[in-house]
Every structure is written in C-alpha cells, then in structure tokens.
C-alpha cells in the first residue's frame, strides 16, 4: 500500500505531480477559460462579492495566506486570512457580499467547521476547499471545490497542500474571469501556465538528492530558520511547521523584511537559515532578499538558498543552493515548498522518527 516507499509521506510527496494534475483536470476548457460548475455559487453572486475571508488551520492556513496574494492581485478583491479558531471568537465583520473560503483537507477540522457556521449565521457565502468526499465541510458550505489529492495518510500534509494551492489559484483566477479585471491577459496566460505545473513539480522531485544529503547533515542542528518574502513568506512558515512536527526541532519562519525588526538577533555562527528567493523577474523583491541573505551570512548564518534555476545573483551568498524551475512569482510556492517537505521528511527520518505518525498529532483534529 506504500507503493514501495518506506513511509506514506514519501509516497505522497512523490505523488504530487499527479495530484496537481488531477486537481486541474476538467477545469480548464478548450477555449482556455476556467469552468468550476460544481462550485454552485452563481457567477452573479461572485460578481457581488466585495470581500474575501479565508479560514483554515495549520498547513491549510498557509495555503490561505498564499491565496491572499493571488486573490488581491488577479481578482482585485480585499482578502483577509484567519486562523479558524481565532476568527470565531472575535467579532469579524461579514455580510451577504462576503465570500468566506474554508480550506480543510479532511473536511472534519472542528475549528474550521465552527468558523463556517459562524460565517453562515452572518449570511456570508461560504465556499469549501476540501479533499475528502462526503466529509462534513462540503455539507455545511454553499459550494465546494474539491482537491483531488487522493487519500492522504501521513499526518503531515504534503500533496493536500499543493492541491489546496491549485484550488485557490483556480478560485482567484475564476473570480478574475467572471468579474473582469485589468489583468485579463495575465489571467488567461496564468491558466495556461497552471497546466504546466505538474511537470515543474516533477522536475523538482528529480533533483532532491542533494536536499536529502543536506537534511541528514543537519540532524543535530538545534534550530533552523526559514525566511521568505511575498508568497515565499507563507512557504517559509510551512517549511518551519513541517520541521517542527516531523523532526521535533525548533524551527521558525519569518518574513525576510522583518529580520532587522528583531529576528536577526537570533543569527549566530553556523545557524542554518533556509531562504526562499522570489523570481528575478520581480526585481524589487529579489534584490531585497539577496541583501537579506548577505546580512545573515555576514553574521555567520549557514545559508541554504532556494532560488530559480540560473539565478546567479544569489550563488555567491549561498552555502547550499537548491534550484527550482522558473515559474511566475505567484505560482512559485508549488515548486519551492517541495524541497522543504523533502528536507523535513529526510531530517526526521535521520533522527529515527516515524514521519507518518509524529508524536502528539492526529490526522484530523475533530475537537476544538
Ligand atoms: C500539518 C497539518 C495540519 C493540518 C491542519 C488542518 O502538516 O497537516 O496543520 O493542515 O490540522 O487540517 P485540515 O486541512 O484537515 O483541516
């Protein structure tokens, strides 16, 4: 059942190109436009939306954080992202024209379900993003967009996360398509590019040998930091979460711009810092992070840099360089997350941990 792999997690990481392809399947028409008929929220209702609020926990929340960048940019809608358990104990301002998107692999996370109920009481429209057919979440939402990752057995989310990203990109692009935005051409081009993502993810998987070697060499590190900017920031959070839950190691993700506001004080000789670098095409973001890498390296950090292939500007400052295929900035999490999953999985295995069943964790958290 593990398909020749030692752990379900390894199998699920390897399945990601297929999972991404399946989540795209049937959703891009021959005319290059998206059709999300199963969503059951009318185009008219989507045109009336004036705000998007995303609720989710853990890894699914990281998918939500990435969705914010996509929804604001392509659909031109204000978007807030909330931890479901925080959202429902506040007094969030929602209306009939608020679109609440609840993201949950299992569809059974109690905190997320309670947030959905809270949103519906206030007459918001609720769209679920869910991986499990017949689970509770889809029944409680106005509409649902299923991810087609297939059953995810390992406790730590991998392929579900990548398919959640695909789902939220589809939602952002679909909102742009039905509402019409100034980015019409870009939206059309992005839909085409999404179709190439399974191949790009496959390319990343083919080059993971050095990442595994690196992970084993860091098994005794006391702590690992992760830095990113823009959508690389949630990717950094996700990389840190994977390491915490699998390797039981101290790990933290930061927005690179936040360094000088505090975290740079943590940098000391030999501290491994993994940095997710935006594409060179986003020169402003890219150049800023290159200076961040220089700053931490000057203070002794061991820099592990994830950058697009051919990025020669980062090479001189990278103790280890992990190259990923060049893709547009907003889609980059689909390729930059994969090395972080492999890294955490390998490091945890080197420490002798069962990566499928990390201590103290359950696959779905059905209590509040
Ligand atoms: C981390 C992980 C958890 C889940 C979270 C939400 O690897 O798996 O953080 O993402 O518990 O679960 P779902 O998506 O089922 O609502």
Automatic annotation (TrEMBL):
Keyword Transferase in annotation: yes
Function: Catalyzes the first step in hexosamine metabolism, converting fructose-6P into glucosamine-6P using glutamine as a nitrogen source.
GO molecular function: glutamine-fructose-6-phosphate transaminase (isomerizing) activity
Top EC class for this record: transferase
Keywords assigned: Aminotransferase, Cytoplasm, Glutamine amidotransferase, Repeat, Transferase
Coverage span on the entire protein: 248 to 615 of 615
Domain SIS: 42-181, 214-358
UniProt KW Transferase keyword: yes
Cellular localisation: Cytoplasm
Enzyme Commission no: 2.6.1.16
Catalytic activity, reaction form: D-fructose 6-phosphate + L-glutamine = D-glucosamine 6-phosphate + L-glutamate
The protein, known as: Glutamine--fructose-6-phosphate aminotransferase [isomerizing]
Active site: 363
Subunit structure: Homodimer.
């Amino acid at each position: 059942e593990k398909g020749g792999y030692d752990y379900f997690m390894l199998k699920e990481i390897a399945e990601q190109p297929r999972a991404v392809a399946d989540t795209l399947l049937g959703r891009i028409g021959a005319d290059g436009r998206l059709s999300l008929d199963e969503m059951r929220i009318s185009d008219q209702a989507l045109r009336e939306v004036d705000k998007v609020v995303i609720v989710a926990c853990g890894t699914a929340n990281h998918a939500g954080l990435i969705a914010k960048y996509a929804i604001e940019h392509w659909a031109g809608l204000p978007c807030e992202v909330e931890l479901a358990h925080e959202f429902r104990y506040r007094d969030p301002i929602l209306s009939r024209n608020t679109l609440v998107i609840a993201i949950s692999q299992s569809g059974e996370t109690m905190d997320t379900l309670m947030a959905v109920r809270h949103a519906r009481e206030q007459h918001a429209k609720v769209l679920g993003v869910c991986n499990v057919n017949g689970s509770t979440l889809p029944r409680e939402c106005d509409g649902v967009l299923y991810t087609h990752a297939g059953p995810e057995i390992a406790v730590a989310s991998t392929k579900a996360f990548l398919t959640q990203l695909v789902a939220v990109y589809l939602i952002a692009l679909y909102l742009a398509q039905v509402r019409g935005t100034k980015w019409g051409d870009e939206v059309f081009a992005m839909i085409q590019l999404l179709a190439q993502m399974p191949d790009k993810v496959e390319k990343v998987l083919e080059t993971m040998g050095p990442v595994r070697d690196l992970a084993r060499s860091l098994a005794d590190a006391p702590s690992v930091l992760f830095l990113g900017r823009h959508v690389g920031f949630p990717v950094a959070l996700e990389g840190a979460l994977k390491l915490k839950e699998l390797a039981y190691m101290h790990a933290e993700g930061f927005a690179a711009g936040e360094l000088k506001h505090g975290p740079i004080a943590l940098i000391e000789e030999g501290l491994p810092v993994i940095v997710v670098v935006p594409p060179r095409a986003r020169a402003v973001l890219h150049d800023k992070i290159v200076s961040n890498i220089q700053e931490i390296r000057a203070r002794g950090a061991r820099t592990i840099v994830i950058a697009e292939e051919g990025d020669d500007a980062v090479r001189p400052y990278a103790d280890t360089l992990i190259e990923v295929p060049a893709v547009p900035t907003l889609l980059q999490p689909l390729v930059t997350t994969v090395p972080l999953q492999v890294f955490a999985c390998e490091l945890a295995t080197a420490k002798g941990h069962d990566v499928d069943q990390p201590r103290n964790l359950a696959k779905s958290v059905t209590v509040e």
